[in-house]
Design brief:
CATH topology of the largest domain: Dihydrodipicolinate Reductase, domain 2
Number of helices: 9
Helix content: 25-40%
Distance between the termini: 9 Å
Largest sheet: 6 strands, parallel
Radius of gyration: 20 Å
Number of strands: 14
Oligomer: single chain
Strand content: 25-35%
Shape: globular
């Protein structure tokens, strides 16, 4: 199989290379592409050095699939042309997620939509914060049904790419030197701070990251009227996103019934211990390809309830992006 990775030198692109290298897919012929600025860099794949080439459309001829993480503008301009060449495009940007007829896929949640897709299709990778949430609540949706979701996210700076990582690093260094901080990437300093909205704001006060979580969740679950209340927050953490999730079930359950439901779902790692030292944190699970759940609980003083709260953590560059894309590729191969 010939697989291209576009954006191979970016934060997500490098993780795509790593996840593809460690995947069960055999006999891969990999082509790595990036911007003119990154052309000529060398990236190792399965023991062989590969030169990163500047993207040109005709260089994609003969490829079977393309993992793309080069931004929405690039994808809107090029994804359809690549697909028209018979190359299946798995796109990590937000460009195609809400387009009718384009599957928006988390394989453990709605992988059935991939069945029978022809070569030359465009498949959208959901937003990182959406991916980990829908994996965590998928078993609850199946067993109890879900009527409403409340989510607050604590999202790392790597969600903004390498520039977000550099901004946090430079501001931390400046803070310790008592130097002035001049934000470049974010509107306010991110070091030792919490920014209560991510991306542009609409006239109703919702930010784009929140809109993505709402609309993508509805599309993935096939429930266009599902209530999703989201607050997305940027925090001074380098890698991994955390989420506080509360779901209203369609029927009441006990805490043990909820725990049993979650632990049976193999894609999840569920912490059953009420121990501060055991809870999954961004620092503890960085590099993990899975979704981690802890602090599963009902409202105080309730033995049964239709409300359930949980803590969800995942590496946004792994399951939130690269790992999910490689899982999609594996599912269609």
């Amino acid at each position: 199989m010939k697989v291209a990775i576009i954006g191979a030198t970016g934060a997500v692109g490098r993780e795509m290379v790593a996840d593809l290298e460690n995947s069960a897919l055999k006999h891969l012929d990999v082509g790595l592409f990036a911007s003119e600025r990154s052309a000529g860099e060398s990236v190792s794949f399965r023991g062989k050095a590969h030169e990163v080439r500047a993207f040109k459309l005709d260089l994609l001829k003969g490829y079977d699939a393309c993992l793309m993480s080069a931004g929405g503008a690039f994808s809107r301009q090029n994804a359809r042309s690549i697909a028209d060449m018979g190359v299946t495009v798995i796109d990590n940007s937000s460009a195609w997620r809400m387009i009718d007829g384009v599957p928006l896929v988390v394989p453990e949640v709605n992988g059935h939509v991939l069945r029978g897709l022809p070569r030359g299709s465009i498949i959208a990778n959901p937003n990182c914060s959406t991916i980990q949430m829908v994996v965590a609540i998928k078993p609850l949706m199946e067993q109890f049904g879900i009527q409403q979701i409340h989510v607050s996210t604590y999202q790392s700076v790597s969600g903004t790419g390498q520039k977000g990582i550099r901004e946090l690093s430079s501001q931390v260094e400046a803070s310790f030197k008592f130097a002035d901080i001049s934000p470049q990437v974010y509107a306010q300093p991110i070091a030792f701070n919490v920014l209560p909205a991510i991306d542009v704001l609409d006239q109703f006060g919702h930010c784009f990251e929140e809109e993505k979580m709402v609309r993508e969740t509805r599309k993935i679950f096939g429930q266009p009227e599902l209530d999703v209340l989201a607050t997305t927050v940027r925090v001074p953490v380098y890698h991994c996103h955390s989420e506080s999730v509360a779901v209203r079930l369609a029927k009441a359950a006990s805490r043990q019934e909820v725990l049993d439901c979650l632990t049976r779902f193999q894609p999840l790692t569920v912490c059953l211990e009420n121990d501060h030292s055991k809870f999954p944190t961004p620092r503890g699970i960085a590099g993990s390809q899975g979704v981690h759940v802890a602090r599963v609980r009902l409202p105080v003083d309730r033995e049964r309830s239709d409300w359930v709260q949980l803590w969800v953590v995942a590496d946004n560059l792994k399951k939130g992006a690269a790992t999910n894309a490689v899982q999609i590729l594996s599912a269609i191969s």
